[in-house]
Design goal:
366 residues, alpha/beta, two-stranded antiparallel sheet, globular, binds pyridoxal-5'-phosphate, DegT/StrS_aminotransferase, pyridoxal phosphate, DegT/DnrJ/EryC1/StrS family aminotransferase, transaminase activity
Length: 366
Amino acid sequence: MIKFLDLQKINLKYQQEIKEALMQTFRSGWYLLGEKTKSFEENLADYIGTDHAIGVANGLDALRLIFRAYIELGIMNPGDEVLVPANTYIASVLAISDNGMIPVFVEPDINTYNIDISKIEQKISPKTKAILIVHLQGRIVFSEKLKEIATKYKLKIIEDNAQAIGAEWKGIKSGNLGDASGFSFYPGKNLGALGDAGAVTTSDKKLSETIRALGNYGSNQKYINIYKGFNSRMDELQAAVLDIKLKYIDHENEMRRKIANRFISGITHPQIILPENPAAQKEHVWHLFVIRTEKRDTLQNHLAEKGIQTIIHYPIPPHKQAAYKEYAHFSLPVTEKLHNECLSLPISSILEEEEIQQIINSVNMF
Ligand SMILES: *Cc1c(COP(=O)(O)O)cnc(C)c1O
């Protein structure tokens, strides 16, 4: 069987290095806010190109902390609106509503699956304070037009970069395109930890200091609390693993890109819509390879019979979740269409040549 994602196989590639780093940390007797986190934060900031990186407990916290910090700094307020793609993982939306802010859904572009930048301006109100862009599936969404809109209406651009670490837009890495960015190192992400971890990158010094304090009980100095913060720290063991895997992320992403290109040239089924390959290949790191068909469920069963495990990202959009019943009446037809038709094929650096061919053949036989 071809697993959707074989984390064991991916991590085994780095076993020797990881083992040494984990043992070093174990023996050091220092498990939080130590040298490993500091080193990973420095290396991540270097890699992304920002002045600061702050390790936090997970990706959702990274995003929640960004909004909370803007509130503490008086730049945003509960009740303010944040534009967010309707087609995203629910965590993007939770980060907004958790801070008492209002998510305003914007429909995706049917070709890129990312927020439709041409539909942003009509959703802006006097209460709008930010645009949360999500580089969904690993594909960057950004443009000069987006920057112009943000400048014109004085909006912060915040990136949900959980799925696109390593992607580049005109030589600038995702995570360095807006004012602040949240990362997830959930095990299945392109850069995955051995548990939960996340980070914020920004070049805004005040924001970075506020986020660091907020994630540490609102304290920058032991037992002196300036904010009503919470506890959201990256631990030393995760930082040790991530610091090693960060060195190989470009290679991992390049392998994904090669497989995506094989799928795009190999899958020729007339009823299956392939994801668009951006002209600038570096704009995509293929966290997911998502195909579409009106017969999605039949295709999924067909592939399962051929021994290929697939996943639906995601079966229910945020506005149709019970958690957000207040938005259930919204009409977001493009988002709903994508959720009904999408199917993610296995894609990761450890797929063997025969497996890639088997996936292509099985899809074409549908
Ligand atoms: C994974 C993910 C998150 C949340 O990250 P966690 O580390 O699981 O909290 C947020 N947004 C998107 C788009 C994601 O894919």
